[in-house]
Amino acid sequence: MDAELSVIGSGPAGLSAAIESAKYGVRVELIDENILPGGQLFKQIHKFFGSKKHYAGVRGYDIGWRLLREAEDAKVNIRLNTTVWGIFQSSNNRIGLFDQQRVFFSKPKRLVIATGATENPLSFPGSTLPGVMGAGAVQTMMNIHRVLPGRRVLMVGAGNVGLIVSYQLLQAGAEVAAVVEAMPKIGGYLVHALKLMRTGVPILTSHTVLEARGDKEVESAVIASLDKDCRIVKGSEKELDVDLVCLAVGLKPDAELCRMLGCGFTYVPFLGGRVPIHNEDMETTIPGVYVAGDVSGVEEASVAMEEGRLAGISVAESLGYISEGEAEKEKDEIKERLRDFRIGPFGSPRQEGKDKILTEYKRWFSNEGKRDS
Amino acid sequence: MRESEILEKIRSSPGYPSRERFIKGPVCVIECPEEIPCDPCSQVCPFEAIDVGRPITNLPKLIEDRCTGCGLCITACPGLAIFVVNLNYSPGEASISMPYEFLPLPDVGQQVEMLNREGSYVCKGRIVRVNEGEDHTRVVTVAVPKEFYEHARGIKLISGKVR
Amino acid sequence: MRIYDHPILGGLREKRKVSIEVDGEIIEAYEGEPIAAALLAAGIRTFRHTLRENKPRGLFCAIGRCTDCVMTVDGIPNIRTCVTPVREGMRVETQVGLGKWRRI
Q: Which one of A10, A148, B36, C71 is CB 3.0 to 4.6 Å from C1, fit for a cystine?
């Protein structure tokens, strides 16, 4: 029997969506192209922020284990090693799958796309040399596979990812020569920055990487300071003896499947660029297709889990497994928590972004045929 | 960012004890001056000495008369931003208990170099206690000359053994 | 470089070892780990050379997206080493350009 709901991506958002809908009786299939479920959760070895009631103070990998147990208890059918290579709106959102053996199709009634995000690259002379890696990639290698891709590191970007991964590099036994940040101010949380700074790692704001040098692989990197117009200050160039340049310059939603389906998109720089338009219940401009987590706008894992729950309940409601009244109550609680996550200097620009997406959603249906994708 | 700038920001946040409270003995010092969505510190305190409330982006407020300096909040804080300072550790020394998540662990009695918040050298310190802590976050207590109680916040890393 | 001791993750658990052949040399790997991890552990960071300029490339995204880390594995070119687990006896070759198919 085909699943009623296919959730694509088993990170924090996908797992939460699958668990929540399965709890109400929806027949769920959770699909992931990786060998292991959990998305990026298992490489998060730091304790999460948030509300104590919802995993705050728990390390990412422990949250991963808890979610996997919940998924098992809720009888979610997890299909690993399975790639979704196509979705066809013309045949009722039929999805094309490949499980390394055969190609097959599935025709779920509802879809939750929770494919996460990909790291942004940065181009500079030497940026293609072996030894220039995404921060997430470094995190995967050292925290999941327990190999260190370099001994002495230049981190590019002082957002939360750059700060957290720098700290984790120290924990893994590497040395962090410096963190450079082109903006005049540290982008991530001060508490993350302080964890690094008090060990002696310099965070150089208004600085950038100019070049990665090396014959065959990275042997050093050149950094320089930037003036207030972001121009390189002549004579400020410095060559650092590093064998790894780690890029933490932002993420963008991995929304190829939404694009393939023809979902409406809108541009929200603070949420990672072009994001699929969705309503408060996480439904896209294509009825029955939902998004959750970073694919719907890059935020953080705690938000991804709440959005996943929201999508899961919305699906259960739309399939008649939960009454409208009961669903509203549950959804209101989640929405309130999401609002809490999106206040303050770091949160409010994200709330503005989500508000813009909602406005676009309403506009989409009031102004039929208007396309921004 | 300079030490003075960071300290200024932290001192003016509601989680920082008053000079009078420091003088009385062990007290937790919450160095969390930005509104981020987080509240485990307020949940873990058995004396209800830390208040976050709603919304959870509120800055944690230290109710200093209730704080006993027990240090449960040190390992509960996901941001590793809470310290316990005892200004009366010995006639000439203050002790600073801090979260520690590196290897190798320092040994009790070991001399270490103490750094401030911007990573500059402050003074020598002596490790006086290493606790198992909670969930892999150890708590290391260092004795430092009294005058550095507000500045010594990090231990210069003992270079790791990469094989 | 393997990370043997870790303050959060603890000691490295011994897993079953397998041998793989990389450009003719035998290296040890842990069963189930991606090829890329085994190579990094052995100190190998250059995985392929580009078609036109013969420039070295290595691991970049490690989640199977960027395809910078592809190599020829058991005679099949363009295998993403970051998401392909090692197997006993696997033959891994530095790929040049688009690589060549080879029957084995």
A: A148
